Amino acid sequence: MEKLGDILKAARTKSNKALKEVAKEVALDYSLLSRIENGSRAATKSQILTLADYYKIPPKDLMIHWLSDKLYLQLKDEEGAIEALQLAESRLSYHVKSFNNQPLLKKINSLKQELDKHRPLDKTHLQKLINYYKVEYTYDSNRIEGNTLTLKETALVIEKGMTIRGKSVQEHFETVNHAEAVDLLYDFVQKKSELNEFLLKQIHALVLRGIDKHNAGRYRNVNVRISGSKYEPPQPFMLNKLMEDYFLFYQEQKGKMHPVVLAAEMHERLVTIHPFIDGNGRTARLVMNLVLMQAGFPITNISSEQENRLTYYESLELAQTENNKNPFIEFIGQHVVKALEEFLKLSA
Question: How high is the pLDDT of residue 90?
């Protein structure tokens, strides 16, 4: 990879300019410009932008090389430099970019205001709605992860405690566990429990209860890969710091960011970190719904139908590999709209 000084020297040579001539025209000391070109002196950001404008080089191109050189000089003699760069890369992906689909947010706000007009709902009717959504949500969230129970079978396991012939013990555990995790969310909302590491591990421990005792509620200590994805989750040594950043992000943004955008962010960030051996998807969707429910939204279900599931995975992949979160946030926002419209219809 070319060094910054080489790029600047090549640009000057191409323009048939002498070093002294360029120095005069950009108002830089001749000896300073010479040292920047030969790599013995680091340029400032403003000097790089000035030279980019002078040579008609895209500023971003020069800035990338400038930052690369800056990092190299800072880390070249440090033990653990590569690991530090990997951690920095993961943390930089957390940079918040504004979500500006105002028509979608406006529609969500309008539906939410309409729902608030119907509150408080009759307790008996509300409980029936809660039970209905618990079954549907459990069915779809588990089906996304490969569970083969039908919607009817899911209802029988949750509501009647039945064992479905031909279905595995694990699939039964996944169903019962997820249903109880949904109940736990309502308990957290009622008690106004704060989303933190202890609460997250409680949710995950319930998701994997009876399935993987050793890893339930514990961060992984091995590398993992996501089947069918180009994205590689961070290494285990990075998890504690990344999860610390995860909860700091929540604390900093919960009073500023629209709750639907925040819920989508907390979902995406958790599956991107992938802190657990298994159960990351189900846990992330539960966390998303906890954030929504705490803000007064009904449970938002992500359909497990093939086309919708593919869109779900593709939008997550864009967020993870290209740091383009807007398609995923829009995807979640559209499902929140659907959830609000359905809840309003059923609660009328």
Answer: 58
| pLDDT above 80 (res 96) | no
**Predicted confidence (pLDDT) at residue 43 exceeds the cutoff of 60:** yes
Identify the CATH number of the domain in which residue 68 sits. 1.10.260.40
Q: Are residues 131 and 208 in the same domain?
A: yes
- Mean pLDDT, residues 200-212: 98
The number of distinct structural domains making up the chain is 2
- Report the alpha-carbon distance of residue 348 to residue 331 in Å, rounded: 26
Residues 294-304 pLDDT 10s: 999 999 999 99
Same domain (yes/no): 193, 338: yes
Q: Which residues belong to the active site?
A: 274
pLDDT at 277: 96
